[in-house]
Amino acid sequence: MRIVMGVGGGIAAYKSASLLRLFTEAGHNVSVIPTEASKRFVGVATWEALSGNTVSSSVFDEVEKVNHVRLGHEADLIVVAPATADLLARAASGQADDLLTNTLLMARGPVLFAPAMHTEMWAHPATRANVQTLRSRGALVMEPGVGRLTGTDSGAGRLPDPEDIFAAAIAAATPPEDPAALPGPLHGKTVTVTAGGTREPLDPVRFLGNRSSGKQGAALARAALDAGARVRFIAAHMDVPAPDGVELTRVETALELREAVHAAAVDSDVLIMAAAVADFRPDTQSNTKIKKRDDGADPVITLVRNPDILAEAVQQRSKAAAGTARPALIVGFAAETGDGSADVLDYGRQKLKRKGCDLLVLNRVGTSLVFGQDSTEVTLLSPQDSESVPPPSYTGTKTDVAQRIIGRIEQELEAALPVR
């Protein structure tokens, strides 16, 4: 496959060298087009050595080959990584002031942008509008990663991992197995799925975590893809790989997950909160490993509450202007154990009312139940349930149950039209 790899002028440009290596080792012929600004971070010699091709950023180099037309016409795929705020703006407005933007205008195949910038830049209305414009024209704009940024800041804006960009790019350039197949019931819908378990650091070695494997979230993402949806997959710690074809964002902590969910929810049709989010985190994180004290005293760890991401998503939707509320459907998950005060179903109904979501998938959990298993049993609760009629329960493999849940989501979306 002939690939054009554009490199924007950000500190994350160095990571694109690993992406280029993945493309070339897979046997693809890659032409790298760095912007002038990006060459301040990574030199042309690096791109030529790794690609085996001559590298240029000017429309006046090799004029006899008409590169500003030829490269875009011949490319089976164009990948821009990192895509800075400036580069997204220039691409959205159709500027053609260097070889890369000329090539983007001449593209005839799929185009993928992997953003990298500071959180405030990514969240700015101008950037969001540019992203929406590019997506409306058929370009694939990945969600950025969440974590440490340049300097001491953290948040949404990290360049996605090279492996994730590679997977998304290959998926974008791979035609469907059956081009004549009819669109699925979720065609045209964007579904955001969270999965896995968050980890709250105590020191560089230890963390507060949970038993979630991410299997159910991955199964839900695959079922949504099979239904024709565009799927954003926000993954905390997982024991299974993310499904091929999703737009992947990796997170570690509850606060990172919160940032990613808020960023993705604003233009998603469905939000499925399948991740096991830690309710608490240590109030302080030691920069060094906590040692056993010679006097035998035990350390005291103080926990503080993490934000309620699901409830916040519901609240944000309720505050949106009429006709613009997103997501149209919010699905929560509850992992519960019964006790002397109430059973699992009672606690599930209480949580549904407290969170305010549209559907709640209720799991009975335990040491050998649900977490890490390939099979599951869930009860699906909604605010319209009657106390006298048992809510529907699904039992089977997590793949089977995911398909049943996505089927219910399809019904809810159809019944909710027009979108509230």
From TrEMBL:
<keyword id="KW-0456">Lyase</keyword>
<comment type="function">
    <text>Catalyzes two sequential steps in the biosynthesis of coenzyme A. In the first step cysteine is conjugated to 4'-phosphopantothenate to form 4-phosphopantothenoylcysteine. In the second step the latter compound is decarboxylated to form 4'-phosphopantotheine.</text>
</comment>
<keyword id="KW-0285">Flavoprotein</keyword>
<dbReference type="Pfam" id="PF02441">
    <property type="entry name" value="Flavoprotein"/>
</dbReference>
<dbReference type="InterPro" id="IPR035929">
    <property type="entry name" value="CoaB-like_sf"/>
</dbReference>
<feature type="region of interest" description="Phosphopantothenate--cysteine ligase">
    <location>
        <begin position="191"/>
        <end position="420"/>
    </location>
</feature>
<dbReference type="GO" id="GO:0010181">
    <property type="term" value="F:FMN binding"/>
</dbReference>
<protein>
    <recommendedName>
        <fullName>Coenzyme A biosynthesis bifunctional protein CoaBC</fullName>
        <ecNumber>4.1.1.36</ecNumber>
        <ecNumber>6.3.2.5</ecNumber>
    </recommendedName>
</protein>
<keyword id="KW-0210">Decarboxylase</keyword>
<comment type="function">
    <text>Catalyzes two steps in the biosynthesis of coenzyme A. In the first step cysteine is conjugated to 4'-phosphopantothenate to form 4-phosphopantothenoylcysteine, in the latter compound is decarboxylated to form 4'-phosphopantotheine.</text>
</comment>
<keyword id="KW-0511">Multifunctional enzyme</keyword>
<feature type="region of interest" description="Phosphopantothenoylcysteine decarboxylase">
    <location>
        <begin position="1"/>
        <end position="190"/>
    </location>
</feature>
<keyword id="KW-0479">Metal-binding</keyword>
<dbReference type="GO" id="GO:0015937">
    <property type="term" value="P:coenzyme A biosynthetic process"/>
</dbReference>
<dbReference type="Pfam" id="PF04127">
    <property type="entry name" value="DFP"/>
</dbReference>
<feature type="binding site">
    <location>
        <begin position="307"/>
        <end position="310"/>
    </location>
    <ligand>
        <name>CTP</name>
    </ligand>
</feature>
<feature type="domain" description="Flavoprotein">
    <location>
        <begin position="1"/>
        <end position="168"/>
    </location>
</feature>
<dbReference type="GO" id="GO:0071513">
    <property type="term" value="C:phosphopantothenoylcysteine decarboxylase complex"/>
</dbReference>
<comment type="similarity">
    <text>In the N-terminal section; belongs to the HFCD (homo-oligomeric flavin containing Cys decarboxylase) superfamily.</text>
</comment>
<dbReference type="InterPro" id="IPR003382">
    <property type="entry name" value="Flavoprotein"/>
</dbReference>
<keyword id="KW-0436">Ligase</keyword>
<comment type="similarity">
    <text>In the C-terminal section; belongs to the PPC synthetase family.</text>
</comment>
<comment type="pathway">
    <text>Cofactor biosynthesis; coenzyme A biosynthesis; CoA from (R)-pantothenate: step 3/5.</text>
</comment>
<dbReference type="GO" id="GO:0004632">
    <property type="term" value="F:phosphopantothenate--cysteine ligase activity"/>
</dbReference>
<comment type="pathway">
    <text>Cofactor biosynthesis; coenzyme A biosynthesis; CoA from (R)-pantothenate: step 2/5.</text>
</comment>
<feature type="binding site">
    <location>
        <position position="355"/>
    </location>
    <ligand>
        <name>CTP</name>
    </ligand>
</feature>
<keyword id="KW-0288">FMN</keyword>
<feature type="binding site">
    <location>
        <position position="351"/>
    </location>
    <ligand>
        <name>CTP</name>
    </ligand>
</feature>
<dbReference type="GO" id="GO:0046872">
    <property type="term" value="F:metal ion binding"/>
</dbReference>
<dbReference type="GO" id="GO:0004633">
    <property type="term" value="F:phosphopantothenoylcysteine decarboxylase activity"/>
</dbReference>
<feature type="binding site">
    <location>
        <position position="289"/>
    </location>
    <ligand>
        <name>CTP</name>
    </ligand>
</feature>
<feature type="binding site">
    <location>
        <position position="279"/>
    </location>
    <ligand>
        <name>CTP</name>
    </ligand>
</feature>
<dbReference type="InterPro" id="IPR005252">
    <property type="entry name" value="CoaBC"/>
</dbReference>
<dbReference type="GO" id="GO:0015941">
    <property type="term" value="P:pantothenate catabolic process"/>
</dbReference>
<keyword id="KW-0460">Magnesium</keyword>
<feature type="binding site">
    <location>
        <position position="333"/>
    </location>
    <ligand>
        <name>CTP</name>
    </ligand>
</feature>
<dbReference type="InterPro" id="IPR036551">
    <property type="entry name" value="Flavin_trans-like"/>
</dbReference>
<dbReference type="InterPro" id="IPR007085">
    <property type="entry name" value="DNA/pantothenate-metab_flavo_C"/>
</dbReference>
<feature type="domain" description="DNA/pantothenate metabolism flavoprotein C-terminal">
    <location>
        <begin position="186"/>
        <end position="411"/>
    </location>
</feature>
